[in-house]
Amino acid sequence: MERLKLILNKSKIAYLVCSLNGEIEFISSNFFKTMDWDIAMPPVMISDLKKHVHGAYNDAFDSIIEIGKLGLEESVGDIKYKGLSNRDLYAKTTCSLIKEDGQSKLIIWFQDVSEEKLKESLLKISEAQFKGAFENSAIGMAIISLDGKWLRINKRIGEFLGYTADELFQKTFQEITHPEDLEADLLQVQATLAGLIDHYHMEKRYYNKSGEIVYGLLSVSLVRDKYGAPNHFISQIQDLSAIVESERALSNSNNRIKSVFNTTNDVSIVSCDKNGIINLVSTGTERLLGFSSNELVGIAPIYLFHNEDELTRRKREFEIKNEKSLTIVEYFFELADHQDYVTRQWEYIKKNGESVIVKLSLAKIYNENGDVVGITAIATDISDIKRIKRELELSEQRWQFALEGSGNGVWDWNVASQKVFYSRTWKEILHLENESLGETSDEWLDRIHPNERNSFIEAMQNIILGRSFKFSHEHRIRVKSGDYKWVSVKGMIVERLHNGTPSRVIGTLTDIQTQRETLEQLHHMLEISSDQNKRLLNFAHIISHNLRSHSGNFELLFSLMDASESNVDRVEIIEKIRLVSKRLAETITNLNEIVSVQENTNVWKGPINLKNIVGRILRSLNGQIAAIHAKVLLEFEDGLEIRGNEPYLESIFLHLLTNCIKYRSNDRPLEIRIMARNIDWGVEVCVADNGSGLDMNKYGHKVFGLYNIFHGNPDAKGLGLFLTKNHIESQGGEISMESEVGKGTTVKFILP
Amino acid sequence: MNAFFKSALVVDDDRIFVFGISRLMEMTNFCDDIIVCQHGKEALDYLMSIADEGKLPDVILLDINMPVLDGWQFLDEFLKIRSRWKKEITIYMVSSSVSKGDIEKAKSYDVIRDYLIKPVKTEDLNRILDSHQEGSSD
Lengths: 752, 138
Prior knowledge:
The complex is a heterodimer.
Chain A: H1 2-10, E1 14-19, E2 24-27, H2 31-35, H3 46-50, H4 58-70, E3 75-82, E4 88-100, E5 103-112, H5 114-136, E6 140-145, E7 150-153, H6 155-161, H7 165-169, H8 173-176, H9 179-193, E8 199-207, E9 213-224, E10 230-239, H10 241-263, E11 267-273, E12 278-281, H11 283-289, H12 293-296, H13 308-322, H14 328-338, E13 345-349, E14 355-366, E15 372-381, H15 383-405, E16 409-414, E17 419-422, H16 424-429, H17 442-445, H18 450-464, E18 470-478, E19 484-496, E20 502-511, H19 513-563, H20 567-599, E21 606-608, H21 610-620, H22 622-627, E22 631-636, E23 642-644, H23 646-662, E24 671-679, E25 682-689, H24 696-699, H25 720-730, E26 734-740, E27 744-751
Parallel strand pairs in A: 22-24
Antiparallel strand pairs in A: 1-2, 1-5, 3-4, 4-5, 6-7, 6-10, 8-9, 9-10, 11-12, 11-15, 13-14, 14-15, 16-17, 16-20, 18-19, 19-20, 21-23, 24-25, 25-27, 26-27
Chain B: E1 5-11, H1 15-28, E2 31-37, H2 40-49, E3 59-62, H3 71-81, E4 90-95, H4 100-107, E5 112-117, H5 122-137
Parallel strand pairs in B: 1-2, 1-3, 3-4, 4-5
Helix pairs in contact in B: 2-3
């Protein structure tokens, strides 16, 4: 007995050992736990145990004990007990008769089967429910064998296919399936049987009893037995015939709309529900914004794509204007009613972060009762349009900037309105940048120098009248100070009306004052330098000529010397050689004098007293003048102010007066008049005589040339007037000569 | 021995040159008579004063740079009056000018036979004589 107890205690099963009269002699350690029994009150008699048996199971319990006592076989049954806290528990109760120590004992053991019992009862319930659901389902249901035989169908299947249950049980599903759908169905069946899928859906066509095609949405699940082996299929078939018909009618128009949506890359159509959550997305959205419908539908708010700052700002503006506070979604519903030009343009942010400018149309969605249930947002990509516009503006700005930057003024003349736009640089050229200038053409025309105004107006008229499409004009324009400056104007037609009439002319205004001045200076310099050049060439020519004539003479005389045979001859030749040598020395002295004058182009100048100089020269010539009984008259204006170089002036007067004496007429006594008077730009001095005169037609062009001698006068050197001219020009003056044969000569010079 | 030319006219204001050329003419037996004028005007006056055509010079040596009437001005005047005479008068320009302009200008006058650059040598005179010798032997 003790050994038995030991074994039973080690088992996981709950055991009781009792005598045949019901006294409990042993309780295994697991009993309390399995039977949910209070350990403090262990059962003493079998009858104690029975107190815990559910009323409905009393007979079953008694019979297990009684049959067990018979000792023929183990008696067993599931008994419902009440646990500690009145918890129901099922225990498989087994009773067996054993012999221990020569005495018969009953051994009873308990196994908790509560869970199994529960499942069993649930299954019974669900089976009942399934049956009800199966029969009364609104959709057709069928149980089909693995080889396709209809085992059970509900009423709806019968109605759908037009067969009675008995008729259908004679057929397989393959027989009534449209051949084009059969293969797809069978493939799915095989995949299900192979365990790749456990259920499938497909739309398929069946032939009903009268041979017509009916459409069904088929859902098939495989039912396996408790070992996992495929047992049968449960098919649900929904009648789609009506839907398919209307769908087919819709699909054509749908396809058309779809094709529109799908071909327009730059249109995004998104709808949202009342709460602003997106519930529909067009394919354009995906292409334009990069979001897929999976990422949006049911998750994202309608304003997901918007630039947050822009949205917040506009919402606030709206709130202030309408004096109410709104959520973003509320704002969108309001926008749908209040969209204006500005709120049609928005910045969207693509999924990749890029920005895109869209034109947004919002429309409310109503249900059949007329309630607002959402919004549709149609966004068109207008980035390109905006970009082109912006580039156009930029290029125009750049163009103006470039022109203005280069110092050219810009003007823009609207022919129809007669308004002229003057750019800042335009005004700057006239020093009018701080003045307010009207947009009229008079602002310009009134400032043009009268000499050039008419030709300018004419040029403008030629443009308007279509005689030319561009023009350029140079004129003087009065600037702020009242001075005139030269400007160059260029213009051309840039816009015309439909009938071809010019409507807009734009152009530039360029300050060419310094350019003009530079040009004038350049011309002046060119004159001076070409004059100098001529003189230099002449000078070089003369030197070469003079020196050559002397050297030629030397050569000639020496060759004669070689050939001479008498001493008398030689003495005569040597005398001639001496003469040539003397002339050469004179020539060189003269040249030195000329060079020194030519070198001093910028001679020192100071205040000069003309009378003193003339007086001095006359005194030095006094002897000659007296000898020929010449008469000298001085006519000097008062207040003569001359700045000049005194030695030069002395030289000038000496030459001129000496010429008067040299070339006097033999027919009449010499009379010299020296006059000086103030003129515009200096002092004019005249030295006039009544001498023999000179034929100016013959000699006019060379009177001031070097070594030009016109009279057969033995004293003439051809140097005087040349030097005089140089002296006067070196002081910035001018000299001229008038003469008539037999009457006299007048030399006139002006010193500034 | 008679000289080659009967008479020659030298128009030049340079007395040294006149002295030299006269000597050279004697040495080359250039002509019997040498007439000297100091400038173009004087030379013209001289030519106009000759009544007997036979006394006209055979050859004129003409300087360019002279007072009153220079060589060119003389030529212009001379061309106006030369038709008065049947006798052919050969003119030689004699100048120290090496200017291309002067030389080219001299070539443009048919009446000018040659342009001699000073100093004139006996060879120059001999060449003139030679050319006339050939001309007369034709």
